[in-house]
Amino acid sequence: MHYKALGFSILTAASITAAINAMTTSADALTFTETSDVGQSLTNAVDTSSIGVVGNNPIENLTTIRGTLVGTADLFKIVVTTGFFTASTRYEDVGIDETVIDTQLFLFDANGKGIVANDDFDFLTTRRSRIKAQLAAGTYYLGITKFNYDPRDRFDNSIFSDAFSGLVPVNPQAGALDNWRGTVFNQPGKTEQEVDTSRTYEIALGIQPVPTPALIPGLVTLFLAVKRKHQTTPKDSDF
């Protein structure tokens, strides 16, 4: 019986975890598609909350943003639920070398202060971008640009330091987003015309729920208690 008890406890823990995941998963995956060139400032960023919320929303779950880039930034106002926020770019242009659209992603809080950025999540194999951050529920701004077009504050301070790969932290001396500046560099083997050509992009969005602190110790305690019972039960027990 102690084997059944142990198995039941593990099954129960797994069932609880599955239930939590089910409660934090939305049934509808929605897409925001840029129909005209979106703004790049806090005052004219496109508000995507009319389409849906990123994360735990059982009715309207925004999972994708689609748009087009030339040499400027696109800035989106998003609403997220609590959890680990992720955003990553992928390309809609079929058969096009992805280095033609060397993206960058930037995340800002509701006041335009920088949170985290990324140029290439794997510089050796891709020029796509990916950011992640643990966020409280609320309003944020997500910006996308081609490489080297970067956000600045009103004093022309760079909001993020230059780094080709990895999560780039905010410059602690920088203020809120005010403007963007930089040059869309040519890529090796590409003509200026190829680089300047508009390219469509897609940003995949998601929220991973943060495990409830009170639940994890309880499950561990339950497992250890059953394990101790299993170890102390006589082998010739009738149970």
UniProtKB/TrEMBL annotation:
Residues 1-29 form the signal peptide. Keywords: Signal. It comes from the Bacteria. This is PTPA-CTERM sorting domain-containing protein.
